[in-house]
């Protein structure tokens, strides 16, 4: 009975103005799909984004009478995700171990009103279907953008300076300076460009400026605010093709959507400067995995680094795990963790709680956190529409 009261209240006109009434603050079913942390999560309670530590929300949610189901089991029709989503009111999931909300999942999820991304990047949800089904998509905008920007700068340095093969040589007990120095350069004096100059892209530009690059450039249909562009001295380039042809280092910092899926494919890779470095911490599916592996193998790319894969967890035979350039280096891949440092986990756990609290109290959400409002796009970051 309570559930039907919720549905009734959500279909009333006041929710269309993005004031979210839960029809009261008790009795909702909240499903969280998080990654399993194992011993690490038992020993380190600040690993909040894990199944074990449950974003720190259980006692708070249960004290208000809500049901809280947490699992990492998300694949296949018999998974906890697929079963529990059928009558969940709210889904929380993270980009690090996403519960993929496809149109089929939406069709099953009869009570679903809100999807919360504990982190940044909501491409695991079919956003067009969310609009059709009037399910809001909210994320903790900004919660891990500094964490990712730092990782991007680290990736640029480790590729350009040929760090990984140098370290592996030391672990093997070898010592051959020329073998690693023959493919090591300075970041200083290079042309560095970002595809996407939002929160992360802008922070990357700010952080690489002190390295004294030859030039900073960006491609984004939403230009940087004039003051921000001036402060970093970044030149805007009109097309992605032009950007990649001018850069020594390219970094991808845009969301995954219809306009960016497979954007970096064999054709575009041919337009890169020969021997360029590519860093992608945005989403794996923005790059064609086989085309990237081929470009690295041929030397067209000197290096590729990042932490995002299509799909996650990445299968054991994913070509990016072991791909190498002709000199046996150029691979800086790690599991998806750039945006889930302990500092970031604290921020996205607190942000998730704040989103839920506003929802329970029928208060307006922070506009920057709304990706999809009720029946409409609320962000301009997921492609030109
Ligand atoms: P943001 O919304 O602040 O900025 C994204 C920018 O990309 C916007 O300016 C938008 O106009 C631009 N953009 C969109 N489509 C584009 C295209 N086709 N070409 C060029 N630019 C385009 O987002 P953000 O906070 O900077 O995050 C960006 C993305 O990074 C997220 O959507 C997510 O996929 C990824 N991310 C990854 C991690 C991680 O842990 N690896 C963590 C956070 C975010």
UniProtKB/TrEMBL annotation:
Broad EC category: oxidoreductase
Record EC number: 1.17.1.9
Binding site for substrate: 120, 144
Residues annotated as transmembrane: none
Chief localisation class: cytoplasm
Entry's localization field: Cytoplasm
Catalytic activity: formate + NAD(+) = CO2 + NADH
Residues of the D-isomer specific 2-hydroxyacid dehydrogenase catalytic domain: 62-368
Keyword presence, Oxidoreductase: yes
Binding annotation for NAD(+): 199-200, 220, 255-259, 281, 307, 336-339
Record's keyword terms, sorted: Cytoplasm, NAD, Oxidoreductase
One Pfam family per UniProt: 2-Hacid_dh_C
Residues marked Important for catalytic activity (site): 283, 336
Keyword Signal: no
CDD domains: FDH (cd05302)
Residue ranges constituting the D-isomer specific 2-hydroxyacid dehydrogenase NAD-binding domain according to the UniProt record: 154-325
InterPro entries, alphabetized: D-isomer_2_OHA_DH_cat_dom (IPR006139), D-isomer_DH_CS (IPR029753), D-isomer_DH_CS1 (IPR029752), D-isomer_DH_NAD-bd (IPR006140), FDH_NAD-dep (IPR033689), NAD(P)-bd_dom_sf (IPR036291)
Function of the protein: Catalyzes the NAD(+)-dependent oxidation of formate to carbon dioxide. Formate oxidation is the final step in the methanol oxidation pathway in methylotrophic microorganisms. Has a role in the detoxification of exogenous formate in non-methylotrophic organisms.
Family recorded in the similarity comment: Belongs to the D-isomer specific 2-hydroxyacid dehydrogenase family. FDH subfamily.
Record text on subunit structure and interactions: Homodimer.
NCBIfam families assigned: PRK07574.1 (NF005750)
Matches recorded under HAMAP family: Formate_dehydrogenase
Name under which the protein is recorded: Formate dehydrogenase
Organism: Somion occarium
């Amino acid at each position: 009975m309570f559930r039907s009261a919720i549905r009734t209240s959500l279909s009333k006109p006041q929710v269309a103005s993005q004031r979210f009434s839960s029809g009261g603050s008790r009795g909702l079913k909240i499903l969280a799909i998080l990654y399993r942390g194992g011993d690490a999560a038992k020993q380190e309670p600040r690993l909040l984004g894990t199944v074990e530590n449950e974003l720190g929300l259980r006692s708070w949610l249960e004290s208000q009478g809500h049901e809280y189901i947490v699992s990492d089991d998300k694949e296949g029709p018999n998974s906890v995700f697929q079963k529990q989503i059928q009558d969940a009111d709210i889904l929380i999931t993270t980009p690090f171990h996403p519960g993929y909300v496809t149109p089929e999942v939406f069709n099953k999820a009869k009570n679903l009103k809100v999807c919360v991304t504990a982190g940044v990047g909501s491409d695991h949800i079919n956003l067009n279907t969310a609009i059709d089904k009037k399910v809001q998509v909210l994320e903790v905008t900004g919660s891990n953008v500094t964490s990712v920007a730092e990782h991007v700068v680290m990736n640029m340095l480790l590729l350009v300076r040929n760090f990984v093969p140098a370290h592996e040589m030391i672990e093997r007990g070898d010592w051959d300076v020329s073998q690693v120095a023959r493919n090591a350069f300075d970041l200083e004096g290079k042309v560095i460009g970002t595809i996407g100059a939002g929160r992360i892209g802008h922070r990357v530009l700010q952080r690489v400026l002190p390295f004294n690059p030859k030039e900073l450039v960006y491609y984004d249909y939403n230009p940087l605010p004039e003051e921000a562009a001036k402060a970093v001295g970044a030149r805007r380039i009109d097309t992605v093709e032009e950007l990649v042809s001018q850069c020594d280092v390219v970094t991808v910092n845009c969301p995954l959507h219809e306009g960016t899926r497979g954007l970096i494919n064999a054709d575009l890779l041919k337009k890169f400067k020969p021997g360029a470095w590519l860093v992608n911490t945005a989403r794996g599916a923005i790059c064609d995995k086989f085309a990237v592996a081929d470009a690295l193998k041929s030397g067209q790319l000197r290096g590729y680094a990042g932490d995002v894969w299509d799909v996650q967890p990445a299968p054991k035979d994913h070509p990016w795990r072991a791909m190498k350039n002709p000199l046996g280096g150029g691979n800086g891949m790690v599991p998806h963790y750039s945006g889930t440092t302990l500092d970031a986990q604290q921020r996205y756990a607190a942000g998730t709680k704040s989103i839920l609290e506003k929802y329970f109290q029928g208060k307006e959400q922070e506009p920057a956190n709304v990706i999809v409002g009720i029946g409409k796009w609320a962000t301009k970051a997921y492609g030109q529409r």
